[in-house]
Amino acid sequence: MIQLTTFLFIGTTEVIFILFIVVMVFGADKIPEIARGLGKGMRMLRDASNDIKSEITKTAEKQGIDTDITNNITEEINKVKDDLEDFSGSIRREQ
Length: 95
Prior knowledge:
By secondary structure, the chain is an all-alpha fold. Helices cover 73% and strands 0% of the residues.
């Protein structure tokens, strides 16, 4: 069986149609500039979120708040996931 790729609940044919419309509206020469602008925007957003995370961590450490709690919770969640995968491995069917 052939599976179509979906991206944000949009099928392959819809993505191709959207790309066709983008080329028709902006022209082939403007697409690299648009992609660069989107890439820079995504990079700025990621850098800003990393800065916020580091500031929160620094403030928590200055206030004496234990930041290892998140690591412990993540480890416990991963253990539960592994246990569930081990248990459901024999039940899960192939698609």
